[in-house]
Specification:
mainly alpha, two-stranded antiparallel sheet, 11 helices
Length: about 350
């Protein structure tokens, strides 16, 4: 009896050991179930083309501005500096206004790219508001500003160094500085006396006044090439972004996000008070960016951002209210599509 009990216990132990080994073997040879990998859906070709047209439109706008500044520089060197008078000063003022109006819509959107280099260049090209007394004299302070500080050499290096030296309002470069040098206090106060052409005279009876006039002339001669340099640098950055965009396969979520950023930036700027530009001029500039395309005239319709957003292509209402409402509608539609992409994926 005892012998049979020992044999039973031995048999039971062997069974348990065999079961355990078999179970371990099954466990070791069974691979875990792979988790599904989600791949974002590729961007719609029409949206990709629209974004590329928009980037090309920015490049075109900056290039046009550079051409305008080239014209401004030629007028300075060939007309105002050799013969400073009311007519040559007025002509230069008008050309400057054309350059600013052509540039500002694109300027207000450069920050959308989230590129530190673009942001820095944009500040150098057009910073507002400026402290006018940091640049030149004011009626109440006739000896203030860089122009009247005879201890400061006016050069490329010094004007770059003076930009935002201790305060954001201390602007020494860009369109607004050039505008104040040409318009004087009338730039910000229409009731103020206009800048007299004698402020750019070659010689005067007063030697001190002549020195300040020479420095004002020199300031313009240095500031305009620096402005050209910064505009060319912006074009280079935008061209690189366009190349990257063409060589990168964007997914639909990223492409829609880019379109939302553009529309949001436009809407935000239309709610601001941009003293250099009327709302109608700003809306027109935005419309030109949205509708710009490089395709040749064919029966095929170009896929611009305006067409992708299903905007009316003829006789658009560019009033502030109508344009803002159109942007709001587009933003809602884009955000709805954007939300849908977060729940849509393709299995690998």
């Amino acid at each position: 009896m005892e012998r049979m009990l020992r044999q039973f216990i031995l048999y039971l132990t062997l069974c348990i050991m065999l079961f355990g080994c078999d179970n371990d073997q099954k466990t070791s040879t069974t691979s875990p179930t792979p988790k599904p990998v989600n791949i974002p859906a590729p961007a719609e070709p029409t949206l990709l083309e629209a974004l590329q047209h928009y980037k090309t439109a920015q490049i075109h706008a900056i290039t046009s501005t550079t051409d305008c500044v080239n014209k401004l520089t030629a007028e300075l060197n060939e007309q105002l500096l050799p013969s400073p008078n009311k007519a040559t000063l007025f002509s230069l003022q008008q050309t400057l206004q054309q350059c600013i109006k052509g540039y500002l819509p694109t300027h207000t959107l450069l920050s959308v790219a989230n590129n530190p280099q673009l942001t820095q260049l944009a500040r150098a090209i057009n910073s507002t508001p400026i402290l006018p007394g940091y640049v030149d004299y004011l009626a109440q302070y006739p000896y203030t500003g860089i122009v009247n500080d005879l201890t400061l050499t006016i050069s490329n290096k010094s004007l770059r160094a003076q930009q935002g030296l201790t305060d954001n309002g201390e602007v020494s470069l860009g369109f607004e500085v050039i505008a104040f040098l040409l318009f004087g206090e009338q730039r910000y106060d229409k009731s103020a006396n206009p800048r007299p052409a004698t402020d750019f005279s070659l010689t005067t009876e007063n030697e001190e006044v002549t020195r300040h006039s020479d420095r004002r002339r020199l300031y313009l001669s240095v500031a305009l090439p620096l402005l050209q340099e910064d505009l060319i640098a912006v074009t280079s950055v935008l061209n690189q972004q366009l190349m990257d965009q063409q060589n990168t396969t964007l997914d639909q979520h990223s492409a829609l996000s880019a379109a939302v950023q553009i529309a949001n930036a436009m809407q935000k700027n239309l709610q601001r008070d941009i003293s250099q530009l009327s709302y109608e001029e700003l809306s027109l500039g935005y419309w030109q960016l949205l509708t710009y395309h490089t395709a040749e005239k064919t029966k095929m319709k170009a896929n611009t951002l305006s067409s992708y957003l299903k905007w009316p292509q003829r006789n658009p209402d560019l009033s502030r209210e109508a344009f803002t409402a159109q942007l709001q509608t587009s933003i809602q539609r884009l955000n709805t599509a954007l939300s849908a992409t977060t729940n849509t994926s393709r299995p690998r």
